[in-house]
Amino acid sequence: MDTSALLWYKTPADDWNKALPLGNGRIGAMVFSQPLEERIQLNEDSVWSGGFRERNNKSALPNLEKVRKLLFEEKINEAEKIIYDAFCGTPVNQRHYMPLGDMNVIHYKESECDFKGRSLDLNTAVCTTEYAINGVDYTREVFISQPDQVLVMHITASEKKAISVRVRIDGRDDYFDDNSPVHDNDILFYGGCGSEDGINFAAYIKVLHKGGKVYPYGSFITCEDCDEVTILLGAQTSYRCEDYKGQAVFDVERAEEKTYAQLKADHIADYKSYYDRANISLCDNSSGNSTLPTDERLALVKEGDPDNKLIEMYHNFGRYLLIAGSREKTLPTNLQGIWNKDMWPAWGCKFTININTEMNYWCAENCNLSELHMPLIDHIEKLRPNGRKTARNMYGCRGFVCHHNTDIWGDTAPQDLWIPGTQWPMGAAWLCLHIWEHYLYVQDREFLSEKYDTLKEAAEFFLDFLIEDKKGRLVTCPSVSPENTYLTASGSKGSICIGPSMDSQIIYELFTAVAEASKILETDGGFRKKVLEARDRLPAPEIGKYGQIMEWAEDYDEVEPGHRHISQLFALYPADIITMRKTPELAKAARATLERRLSHGGGHTGWSRAWIINHWARLFDGEKVYENVIALLSNSTSENMFDMHPPFQIDGNFGGTAGITEALLQSENGEIILLPALPKEWSEGSFKGLCARGGFVIDLEWKDSKITACHIHSRCGKKCRIVCDSVKVHTASSEVQTLYTDGAAEFDTETGKTYTLTF
Questions:
Q1: Which of the four pLDDT bands, split at 50, 70 and 90, describes residue 640?
Q2: GO MF terms on file (predicted)?
């Protein structure tokens, strides 16, 4: 048994947060493994609540200067009243994500069984359920195939003629038209999601069998006295296909041409082509706990027992979820990935882009899954035309803008009637940094050339939107520090403000990316000059009265010092404006910021705790990394290993995976740092296939917390700079010349060559 790659349990799931997730990027399923009446809760990534609608508030632009004047006069309440009425979206809400339905598989002849176990194998992305009825052993395997675009369930028994089940699909609270059998062995389930130009969906089920017979019975397909049963489900929507019903049928009928063994083999081969690229291995310190069921192991960690292999599993599970939830040509992962059971989910299960959606992709590049980053990058192009209208109509600016949420249609208008969160014009800018991040890892000049205009257009908005503050700096206004509230020296309280620190940091990174891209592409020198001049006038990170990084342009107090957002530390992570090597005083202040947040109860949501892990890793504090990984497992992880806000949000899974990776490998400011935040509890281990900026893939082993082997593969032939005191670099045939500067070794590489380092 691979104790770091097998989630397994002795009992079926009696709650959604205990069910196990499957996905192919587009179709998602939660498997409950109920033996007699199985429930497979289904999603399709484009099942959303309605069509596009124009929501830009036409009253914003006429009131923009008035709001700015009130904020400069510190008349915060008056400014916020105008924001509430004149800037929030009309109508208030964007579209939201919805479930597809439930597929049920019912043993209709039996009422008792002996449950043996259920599992999700992260090595194969196959979910297995085992049970016995009247002395007959049954096995159900379920997976969702990306090559064949279908969900597959295969039921076998230890005796012939032992399988008698009924299959149906239902489970939506509303909005479906039909779920009746259309022939002896198939069901077409279809309906709509709402609004006159909304999305329609279809799911098609076909039941295949060996032995026995299959026939319709009410809304069921009945299998009677069969030797084996295979169920295929395809799902499509009008979002992608004009003939969505026909496409769902086609997907299933094409898959039907293969045997079950072929379907499974093709699924596993496709999945492993991503999953096997990278892994980490940590020494087993669990005193035998690693052989226990996953829920029992998690409970023991909560009681204080160590289990490095469970941490390793958490990392594997994060990579698994990205492969299952984000494939090329699919939508990006939302607040719950592609797994949502509610018709009206928390926060609409949208793309929340004041950190959550971005966090979903923090582990894409360094965990060697660059292609899976593309759904997010592709979605930015949906924002651009809508964002131009929002920029022009609300702010009188060029370029494009998006606020703190978007939806399937790329809606860019403000979302919610909530002053601490709604009026934040930075969403598109942050998303565009993912374009630059992807380039830094893959070094694809053609990709950068294709996306340069997107970066430029995001920057153009801020060249128009930024205004001078009383110190002559360029700042955003109006904006917020996401979801937080401040107190002024005079006792005024508010959220709408001038120049929150996170805004300046994001814009600094955006302007830097545009300037560097322009330089690499040898184009647009005049625009490069403009953004660099504007960048020099942005507020830099400052240290406040508590020794902390200031969250606002002024040294305000927080109304909630333990707030879940730590927006002022964007500069530490995911950016590298603040670093231990380049800005030690600011790094010290970043530590003070974290300590202050945590001392007041911070990190109480899963995603916030995950962000904190990344922060501690960037501060080279392995013990704090370990302490917060344990806190993430103990306080914010469900039995099925899903992150809990609560409720379930997938961002913490991805953020936690990224944080564990950052503890082992970092690349920032053009330097690669090996084992920068290694906890003493991980004194022995290895990783393979992790990636660094510059196009490098790294395998590394360590013992007694010291590196024993290191191999760096150069994909792009770029110069490699390793932080270390001394190192010898070899290829298979010769030693490589190194140059030492500022505590780092630098050497040239050739595309496709692997370099062995000895320390």
A1: very high
A2: alpha-L-fucosidase activity
Spell out the SS3 assignment of 666-707. EEECCEEEECCCCCHHHCCEEEEEEEECCCEEEEEEEECCEE
Cα–Cα distance measured from residue 105 to residue 34, given in angstroms and rounded to the nearest whole number: 9
Alpha-carbon Rg for the chain, nearest whole angstrom, is 27
Kind plus residue range of the DSSP H or E element containing 756: strand 754-758
Q: Over the stretch 569-591, which tens digit does the pLDDT of each residue have? A: 999 999 999 999 999 999 999 99
Other CB atoms within 10 Å distance of the CB of residue 734: 8
Q: Mark residue 603 as left, alpha or beta (left: phi above 0; alpha: psi -120 to 50; beta: remaining).
A: left
Residues 6 or more apart whose CB falls under 8 angstroms from that of 123 comprise 2, 5, 6, 272, 275
Report how far residue 29's alpha carbon sits from residue 10's, in angstroms, rounded to the nearest whole number.
20
Q: According to the model, what pLDDT value does residue 174 have? A: 67
Contact status, residue 306 vs residue 288, Cβ threshold 8 Å: no
pLDDT tens-digit series, residues 662-680: 999 999 999 999 999 999 9
CA angle 346, 121, 5 (to 5 degrees): 90
Give the torsion through C-alpha atoms of 286, 288, 291, 294, to 10 deg. -40
For the entire predicted model, the pTM comes to 0.98
Beta strand pairing status for 467-468 and 20-23? unpaired
CB of 55 within 8 A of CB of 413? Answer: yes
The CA distance from 440 to 513, in Å, is 10
Helices 374-395 and 445-465 sit at what angle, rounded to 10 degrees? 20
Quote the Cα angle for 340-346-348, to 5°: 80
Give the whole-angstrom CA distance, residue 389 versus residue 391: 5
Q: What is the 3-state secondary structure (H, E, C) of 408-430?
A: CCCCCCCCCCCHHHHCCCCHHHH
Structure-token match 């520090």, residue found: 481
- pLDDT per residue as tens digits for the range 299-340: 999 999 999 999 999 999 999 999 999 999 999 999 999 999
Q: Tokens 């590489």, residue?
A: 749
Output the DSSP codes for 607-652: HHHHHHHHHHHHTT-HHHHHHHHHHHHHHSB-TTS-BBSSSB-THH
The two tokens of residue 510 are 């955006």
For the chain, the distance separating the N- and C-terminal CA atoms, rounded to the nearest angstrom, is 35
Question: What's the angle, vertex CA 97, arms to CA 91 and CA 100, rounded to 5?
Answer: 135
| Structure tokens that stand for 705 in this block | 């917390």
Please give the helix or strand (H or E) that residue 236 lies within, else none: strand 228-237
Q: How many CB atoms lie within 10 A of CB 216?
A: 16
